[in-house]
Each structure stands twice: as C-alpha cells, then as structure tokens.
Specification:
The protein is mainly beta and 272 residues long. The protein has one domain (33-265): Sandwich (Jelly Rolls). 6% of the residues lie in helices and 38% in strands. The protein is built from one helix and 17 strands. A hairpin with a 2-residue loop joins strand 14 (202-207) and strand 15 (210-220). The radius of gyration is 23 Å and the shape is globular. The model is unreliable at 1-28 (pLDDT under 50).
C-alpha cells in the first residue's frame, strides 16, 4: 500500500472511531410507561359503588388471557354496583393508549344504557376520596360503545362528564355526553383508543389512530355524580390532573396494551 493511502486509511478509521458518522433517528420507546403487566392487578385499586375502596367485589376485575377483564359471574342482582379500577398515581398532561373489546356478558338488571357500554375515566378524584355510597367519581370519561342495533349509528370515543363540565365549540356544553365522529364498531372488535390530555387545557379523543373529538377546559361542575364529599365538588375548579380508572357498569369488557407517556414527551397542543 502506498504511504499516502496508508495514512488516509488510518485517518478514516480514526474519524469513524470518534463518532463522525450519521446516526439513525432514535426511537423514543423509553418514553412510554406500561400501566398493566399482563399478569396481575399490581398498581391498581378497585372502588365499587356500595363497597369500600379496595374491595374487588365478586372478583369483578380480574386477569384473562393477558388482559384486564371486567366480569360479573359472581353477581346476582346488579344493584347499581358501578365500579372503577384506578391506577395508583395521578397524571396531568399525558398520552394514554389502550385496546378494548366487549364480551357477550351483560347483567340483565344493570341499566339498559350500559349495554355494550364502558369507559376510561381520567382527571378523576383519588379512589380513597370516593365515598362508599358515591355512584360515580368526579372525573371526565372517554366513553366506549359498540353497535346495539343493526343499521343504527353508535359512535365510540365519546365524552361523558360525571360531576364535571367541559368547553366544546367555544362554550360550556350542558350535555352529560357528547358523541364523537367515530364509526360504529361491532361488539367483538378490538378497538385502539387514545387520549391526549394537556392538563386543564385541550383534550383529544382518538379511535384507531383518528382524532374523533376535541374539547377543552375540563373543570368541576355539572351533575350525574351523587353522594360525594361536598368539599370536593367546587364547581368551576379547573381539573389539572387526576387518576385514570377503568369502568365496570354491567357490561363485560376486556382492556389490554395500556401504556402512557407524560407531558415532556407530548407534541405541541393542537386545537384542530
């Protein structure tokens, strides 16, 4: 090898060893926190109407094939045992992702509106603050629905507001639930759901990757929730953070692939 080529060869090796090369974009997989380990309910706390916090009545929340299952095979009468399974820590600004599918099970004595109906609560009060006879937590809900009657639209990814208000299209909307723009899904279809929440500012609901509903300024207010601690019901108080809860209200449902990333890893908020 000629001396000049020899020198150039080793210079090239030295530059490469110093890291002067193009790096591939790093995948931000470490930004995501897995909320459910697929094996047990570690980190989750149940609160079911008529029961004390921590009492998983009739094993309502259980593990089935790597998913969190809501199951009522230990129930007789439903008796308005609306329940929620809460994750152990609160979140403020976050991107939450999960998948869900309904099962064939429905408790006949549950309210008819709960048929093929479940949800995920966010910005909720702490489970320890929910009174034994309080039916719904003060929170905002990402409502999950499936087809009830052939040919009738029944979108999923809707918003419901027990003990809260939100601003929709520039004003506080008096409706308890607001429909999204999603299509209607069969009850046994797995659906990917997402929530992107910027504190007490903007909230986006996504279904299978599409934004189907956007609103803003979640706050304490409205009705529906009953027998709560009045010290917590300060109407007009912004909801900047709170707990995430998986719902049980008479309809069997499976939740899987729950993960979250917090505010520092979110894109800039969009109002569109």
């Amino acid at each position: 090898m000629p001396i000049l080529s020899f020198i150039l060869y080793f210079l090239t090796l030295g530059i490469a060893s110093l890291g002067f090369h193009k790096e591939e974009p790093r995948q931000a997989t470490s930004d995501w926190q897995v909320l459910f380990n697929g094996k047990d309910l570690k980190g989750w706390t149940p609160k079911i109407h008529h029961h004390e916090v921590g009492d998983n009545y009739a094993n309502t929340f259980r593990i089935q094939d790597g998913a969190i299952a809501v199951n009522y095979d230990g129930y007789g009468e439903f008796e308005n045992r609306f329940g929620h399974l809460f994750y152990e820590k609160p979140f403020s600004s976050f991107h939450l992702v999960w998948e869900y599918r309904f099962t064939e099970q429905f408790v006949p004595t549950a309210p008819s509106y709960t048929y093929r109906n479940s949800g995920v609560m966010f910005h909720s009060q702490a489970p320890e603050s929910i009174l034994k006879e309080q039916d719904w937590p003060i929170s905002v809900e990402y409502q999950m629905l499936a087809r009830e009657k052939e040919g009738e639209a029944r979108p999923t990814g809707n918003m419901c507001s027990p003990g809260t208000d939100i601003v929709y299209q520039g004003k506080i909307d008096p409706r308890h639930c607001i429909d999204s723009a999603s299509p209607t899904f069969a009850w046994d279809a797995w659906v990917k759901a997402e929530l992107i929440v910027y504190g007490d500012s903007i909230v986006h609901h996504l279904v299978n990757g599409d934004t189907v509903l956007t609103y803003s300024f979640p706050q304490v207010g409205g009705g529906v929730a009953n027998r709560y601690d009045p010290k917590l019901k300060v109407d007009g108080k912004p909801l900047r953070s709170g707990y995430i809860g998986l719902q049980s209200e008479g309809q069997g449902v499976l939740f899987r692939a729950l993960k979250i990333r917090e505010s520092s890893n979110l894109p800039a908020p969009s109002t569109s």
